[in-house]
Amino acid sequence: MAIRERLSGNEAVSYAIKQINPDVMPAFPITPSTEIPQYVSTYISNGEMDTEFIPVESEHSSMSATIGASAAGARALTATSSCGLALMWEELYVAASNRLPVVLALVNRALSGPININCDHSDSMGARDSGWIQIYAENNQEAYDNFVQAYRISEHKDVLLPVMICQDGFITSHGVENIELLEDEEVKNFVGEFNPEHYLLNTKEAMAVGPYAVSNYYMESKKAQTEAMKNAKQVILDVAEDFAKMSGRSYGFFEEYRLDDAEYAIVIIGSAAGTTKDAIDEMRNEGKKVGLLKIRVFRPFPETEIAEALKHLKGVAILDRTDSFNAHGGPLGSEVTQALFNAKCTMEVRNYIYGLGGRDFKVSDVKKVFEDMEGLVTEGKEVEQYQYIGLRG
Amino acid sequence: MKDTVEIRWHGRGGQGAKTAALLLADVAFSTGKYVQGFPEYGPERMGAPITAYNRIGSDRIRIHSNIYEPDYVVVVDETLLESVDVTAGLNPDGAIVINSAKKPEEVKEHLRGYTGKVYTIDARRISVAALGKYFPNSPMLAAIVAISGVIDRATFLKEMENSYKHKFAKKPDVIEGNMQALKMVLQEL
Q1: What confidence tens digit (pLDDT) does each residue in A255-264 have?
Q2: Are the C-beta atoms of A132 and A95 separated by less than 8 Å?
Q3: Looking at the 3D structure of chain A, how many domains does it have?
Q4: Where a domain ends, among A247, A279, A308?
Q5: Measured between CB atoms, does A323 come within 8 Å of chain B?
Q6: A224 and A317 both lie in a single domain
Q7: From start to end of chain A, where are the E strands?
Q8: From the first residue on, what is the mean pLDDT of each consecutive set of 10 residues in chain B (189 residues)?
């Protein structure tokens, strides 16, 4: 039986953590993810869960302790945002390369500077090549559902990679919305017990975690890591299928909204997808054939599937909530364009940067992008390959 | 006819405008509505102007932008009237309610020609009378419920009592005062 509730995104993820009841959670607070360790430690002190909570003195330590706990054989997690993720930088790579199935509840926030506490994707996008699986949410429901699915993906024997469950800072983390929660037993049965094959506290099998690898071995370990990331694709779909059977809510690598018969589409990640859907409905009422592809899984990057879903379009606008400062586009723009090139698609493609540091993304912004794309295709209007949208006039 | 009611709150950090918006979302949820309640954070300081928002409707709400054309506006601190354009985009068929001891016609000069309905409620007087202290958010919450009609009054009082019982489980003495504040506002508006 689904439980109807209204929760903020931070409450929703904390509730999922309570239901999963992992073994160890080291954490250091940072806005806007602070509430997650706050709620979890309250659940623990109320006796509603028995996770070992370790308050540490920095995010470098929270990820280090998470790694240590996971290597020892525990199911471990932490939460962070922005500069906290940046301070974990070294450890992100250590977690992934040691093939530790830890989960990170990431609440996306801009990186400094100027100092800003609001949402953009510069934190997680900066970590896109660290070897972590990355799954993004449009709303509180998806943040919760993604978290419930996380350990089944990370702990799968063909994967064994850390997972970052991302949601938009303040917009979903502090916004209260309706949500359907699963029963505790359903979640426990779905996630299951963690029985690692190899772990440090196994006295019957001596092992080392994180030793030096000379050049003769280093590259093979990287190749194994990339194979695991490839394997993750099928595992993510299988876990989503099981999740749909339990919850009735279906997930894939991405969501297509009114895309089948569309001529123009926006590709976007996160909470802005909801605003885009409302704008699309308004434009459809005016006869415009517009649609959306909302990315859920960014790592592994579902390249061929994205190209297949977009190949019929006349124009594709890719919207990034971060800039790569490479002077030619954002990370999503570059990778979707590569996907289209490899699939020999030749439609018009443009890349927009939006919503940095919490700049509001509005229905009117969506309409402007679609008008640009239609003007470009039908009238040859000049539209810059890469531009900012939503700047103050 | 718009099926989602949009409300914008203007207050100052520390006055509880965000809490009031979240409480309104809670109460509307408990009557079976789809809701959003969210704050817009600027610099996190006591006294700095803050904005909070509600969307309340009968269908799932997907939009995640701020509210630019609200149906209703609540002003928790009347000193904001001179510095913030509180009626920006406000629906002329909607209304604004301001926490003030003045009469509506006395505050109208600050509303930049807004032609819709204007209400004032003296949250300080009510809060001090009911609670012995100045907490403007409960009176202002009752005020927006009264003028917008998003929840019927009896249901609102019943749900608020449940909510306060939960929220103040360890301070039951403040429940009665808060309920009294709500009722006083509903009688005035």
Answers
A1: 999 999 999 9
A2: yes
A3: 2
A4: A247
A5: no
A6: no
A7: 3-8, 24-27, 52-55, 77-80, 103-108, 133-136, 163-168, 176-181, 254-257, 264-269, 290-295, 297-299, 315-320, 348-353, 386-388
A8: 86 89 94 95 79 96 97 96 95 97 94 96 96 93 96 95 86 90 96
Residue A170 has pLDDT above 90, yes or no: yes
Give just the sign of the alpha carbon dihedral B5, B8, B13, B14.
Answer: negative
Residue A393 maps to a domain? no
* A289 in a structural domain: yes
Peptide bond just before A114 cis, omega within 30 deg: yes
Instruction: Show the domain range for A259.
Output: 255-388
Local structure of residue B59 (DSSP, 8 states)? S
Structural domains in chain B, sorted by start: 4-188 (3.40.920.10)
Interchain pair A172, B64: CB under 8 A: yes
Angle, helices A89-97 vs A215-247, to 10°: value is 90
**Residue in A178, A180, A249, A359 to test binding to B, most B beta-carbons within 10 Å:** A178
Tokens of A149: 């699915």
Same domain, A90 and A212: yes
**Do A41 and A160 have their domain in common?**
yes
Q: What is the CATH number of the domain that holds A274?
A: 3.40.50.920
Is A242 in the same domain as A260? no
Residues ≥6 apart with Cβ < 8 Å to A84: A28, A30, A33, A59, A62
Within chain A, what is the greatest distance between any pair of CA atoms?
Answer: 72
- Which residue of B lies nearest to A139 if distances are taken between CA atoms? B62
Q: Which two tokens stand for residue A263?
A: 């001529």
Inter-residue contact B142 to B185 (CB < 8 Å) = yes
Flag whether the pTM goes above 0.90: yes
In whole angstroms, how far apart are CA A315 and each of A52, A106, A267, A287? 51, 32, 11, 17
Find where tokens 């092992």 sit: A207
CB B35 within 8 A of CB A177: yes
Q: What confidence score (pLDDT) does residue B14 get?
A: 84
Instruction: Starting at the earlier edge strand, list the strands of the sheet with A348-353.
Output: A254-257, A290-295, A264-269, A315-320, A348-353, A386-388
Give the burial class of A1: count Cβ atoms within 10 A of its Cβ; 0-12 exposed, 13-18 middle, 19 or more buried: exposed
Answer whether A49's CB lies under 8 Å from A186's CB: no
Of A247, A263, A298, the domain-final residue: A247
Beta bridge partners of residue A254, listed in sequence order: A295
Which residues make Cβ contacts (< 8 Å) with residue A392, sequence separation at least 6? none
3-state helix, strand, coil split of chain B in percent (to 5) is 40, 20, 40
Cα distance between residue B148 and residue B151, in whole Å: 8
* Residues of chain B contacting residue A319, judged by C-beta atoms under 8 Å apart: none
A72 and A52 in contact (C-beta within 8 Å)? no
In the Cβ-directed half-sphere of B18, how many Cα atoms lie within 13 Å? 19
Contacts of A274 in chain B (CB under 8 A): 62-64
